[in-house]
Structures are given as structure tokens and as C-alpha cells.
Amino acid sequence: MSDLAAPKYASHSFAIAIDAADIDFMGHVNNASYLKWVQDAVVSHWQRFAPSEALATHAWVALKHEITYRKPTFLDDEVIATVLLEKVQGARAFYETVIKRGEDVLAEVKSSWCCLNVETMRPARLAQGVIDRFFAKD
């Protein structure tokens, strides 16, 4: 792939279940619920594409989330999070998650995560073969 070619991502759609406990005093989903949704969606993305040996030996912890809220979300909404792994640098992974109700974008989230070795709980780099599973092939 040339430097000018855009990478192709293996996206992952994750259905979000909205619970009554997610609703705040204003009648819409509380901002804190979005963090839980992003964590669940990113972990689901990892579980979908990573091989079983990587699942058994690696775990992820969130380092940073930047959330841009676009529209409120309500209890009966059907919501989908679309997760993309943008890049991996060392033990860090950078994700984009878009949360939508139909065509309406409800929130956009940029997040960074650290990969850990589950035995040592120290940062761990992923093998290139594992990383490649998260990007679509030509």
C-alpha cells in the first residue's frame, strides 16, 4: 500500500441495549453511559477479530476517551455503535466509535487503549499477524 492510499478498516457493528438506569433526570441517556457502551463495543470488536491465543493472553485498558455528543439518546431508541481500529503503535491502539440511531449520529468517540499481557499486567505489543486481522484485505 502506498503512503497515499487510505487504509481499509474491518469495522464492527455493536448493538447497544439501553436500560432504564441509563436515563437521567432530563429524560435522556446520561453521558456516563456512553463510556460503558464504548468499552463494551471495543471489547466486542477485539473478541470478534482477534485469534483465540491473543484473546487468552491479552487484555485492554482504556487510556483516554474524547466524546463529541451530537444528539440525545432515549430509552426506546435502537442504537448501533460502529467500531474502527485506526492504528496500533507499540502497545497502544487508537479507536474511533460512532454511535448512531438510524442515520442520526448521536456521538463520536476517539479513544486510546493499552494492551496488557494478562499474566504480568504489563503493556504488551501485539504480533503483526494479530494487528492485520483488524484491517480489511484488498
UniProtKB/TrEMBL annotation:
Hydrolase recorded as keyword: yes
Keywords, alphabetical: Hydrolase
GO molecular function: fatty acyl-CoA hydrolase activity
Xref: InterPro entries: 4-hydroxybenzoyl-CoA_TE (IPR050563), HotDog_dom_sf (IPR029069)
Protein family: Belongs to the 4-hydroxybenzoyl-CoA thioesterase family.
PANTHER family reported for this sequence: 4-HYDROXYBENZOYL-COA THIOESTERASE FAMILY MEMBER, NOVEL THIOESTERASE SUPERFAMILY DOMAIN AND SAPOSIN A-TYPE DOMAIN CONTAINING PROTEIN (0610012H03RIK)
Protein name per the record: Acyl-CoA thioesterase
Native species: Sphingomonas glacialis
